[in-house]
Amino acid sequence: MPMRQTALLLASGLLFAAGPRAAAETPAAAPPASPSSDPTQVRPGAYVLDPAHGKITWSVSHLGFSTYYGQITDVSAQAVLDPKEPAKSTLTVTIGTDSVNGLNEQLNRHLKAPDFFDTARFPKATFTATSVEPTSPTTARVNGDLTLKGVTKPVAFDATFNQAGINPVSKAYTVGFDGRAVIRRSDFGISAFLPLLGDDVSLRIEGEFKAAE
User: Fold this and answer.
1) Please, what are the domains in the chain?
2) Are 97 and 119 in contact (CB under 8 A)?
């Protein structure tokens, strides 16, 4: 047999023999974490709110004729989640009041004026959780202090866990929640046009938190 063919056969034999061993020695990649609605499977640790999926939708009675809706879109937040002991979880939120949007240019100017948010003087509102009280396997009552227009009052909202896992778009490990709360705007010095405009303001909260790097 020619020398060249012999060398090729030997090389092929070596590759064949080494192939299974090399495959066995290479650790398999960990499978991606499929989204799960089981809160006990949430990865513990620090999270930050995805700004593209963190909003507050507000609604208030308008003269008794309708319920008016708007949004606040400048929301940032940090959380530390402990699925084994949810009561040890923490949450801090910062809200840019200048992002208040009533879907009407004239109304937006008024909402940012001293009658309402007075955004020039109070550009930020904050919420800091003081306790987390589980109310079911997938819900909790989050108590905390809301500072709005220079006034700090205790506020609570009801949070619902949606799911956690790898976001198929961003590829980031993500935990999703919804929240609901009702606050009285007069508690925070926003009393313009009472009682024609409702005092109770309903808040619907959307939050997707990404695992912090």
Assistant:
1) 39-211 (2.40.128.110)
2) yes
pLDDT in tens, 158-183: 999 999 999 999 999 999 999 999 99
Predicted pLDDT of residue 213: 78
Sorted by sequence, the CB contacts under 8 Å of residue 20 that are 6+ apart come out as: none
Helix/strand/coil (H/E/C) assignment for every residue in 98-164:
HHEECCCHHHHHHHCCCCCCCCCCCCEEEEEEEEEEEEECCEEEEEEEEEECCEEEEEEEEEEEEEE
The Cα–Cα gap between 129 and 91 comes to 5
Give CA–CA dist 93/189, Å, rounded: 21
pTM equals 0.82
Give me the DSSP letters along 58-108: EEEEETTTEEEEEEE--EEEEEEE-SSSGGG-EEEEEEEGGGEE-SSHHHH
